[in-house]
Design a protein that fits this description.
The complex is a heterodimer of chains A (about 120) and B (about 110).
Chain A (H helix, E strand, L loop, with lengths): L2 E3 L4 E5 L4 E3 L2 E3 L5 E8 L6 E7 L6 E3 L2 E6 L4 E6 L8 E9 L6 E3 L3 E6 L1
Chain B lengths: L4 E3 L2 E4 L5 E6 L6 E8 L3 E9 L2 E5 L6 E5 L5 E5 L8 E8 L9 E2 L3 E5 L1
Parallel strand pairs in B: 2-11
Antiparallel strand pairs in B: 1-3, 3-8, 4-5, 4-9, 5-6, 7-8, 9-10, 9-11
Classes of the chains: A mainly beta (about 120), B mainly beta (about 110).
Chain lengths: ~120, ~110
């Protein structure tokens, strides 16, 4: 079975602080995909990143960076110099190329950036 | 390119009624997946349609059904509504299968069952 755990339910940071959102996954498949989505108060999920299991390179996009470590089954997301607009619920998700062929989402981490 | 659109955005129904939700995917996308989001259960996969065929289904009762048309637009139907069906229903489209390709989500339909 595939599973995604986001242990941090809510995080509050002061603007300009760095924050890391944790994501731990479980899968038996060797080919799988990991995603991060942002859900602002408006409700629409916004795609942030997709990573396949064969690409362990870390990625940086502006103030966002992702650290993928297969050895610890983690795909953590860091926001540098947080801003109020970063306030949202962030979801980590996993899908298997074989197996269930469904996308499983974590329970989400609510990030509040305080001005 | 226009994003994923969902109609209606808000819906209020009473127990026992049925409801149909609509989703128009991004142009060129062939897969449409549906998700239910509730505070208690989080985001749960309902089903995926690809090229007009249901390719996968989540653990929901048969009251939840869907279909996809030749233009990739999809509809989701819930019959005999229950209070617990109150949720945000999200539709996502992707070019390839939803399990391997990036899914883009619509704004959702918020269903309230009274």
């Amino acid at each position: 079975a595939q599973k995604v755990t986001q242990a941090q339910t809510e995080i509050s940071v002061v603007e300009k602080e760095d924050v890391t959102l944790d994501c731990v996954y479980e899968t038996r498949d060797t080919t799988y995909y990991l995603f991060w989505y942002k859900q602002p108060p408006s409700g629409e999920l916004v795609f942030l990143i997709r990573r396949n299991s064969f690409d362990e390179q870390n990625e940086i996009s502006g103030r966002y960076s992702w650290n993928f470590q297969k050895s610890t089954s983690s795909f953590n997301f860091t926001i540098t110099a947080s801003q109020v607009v970063d306030s949202a619920v962030y979801f980590c998700a996993l899908s298997e190329a074989g197996g269930y062929q469904k996308v499983t989402f974590g329970t989400g981490t609510k990030l509040q950036v305080i001005p | 390119k226009a994003g994923v659109t969902q109609t209606p955005r808000y819906l209020i129904k009473t127990r026992g009624q049925q409801v149909t939700l609509s989703c128009s995917p991004i142009s060129g996308h062939r897969s449409v997946s549906w998700y239910q989001q509730t505070p208690g259960q989080g985001l749960q996969f309902l089903f995926e349609y690809f090229s007009e065929t249901q390719r996968n289904k989540g653990n929901f009762p048969g009251r939840f059904s869907g279909r996809q048309f030749s233009n990739s637009r999809s509809e989701m139907n819930v019959s005999t509504l229950e209070l617990g069906d109150s949720a945000l229903y999200l539709c996502a489209s992707s070019f390839g299968r939803g399990s391997t390709d990036t899914q883009y989500f619509g704004p959702g339909t918020r269903l309230t069952v009274l």
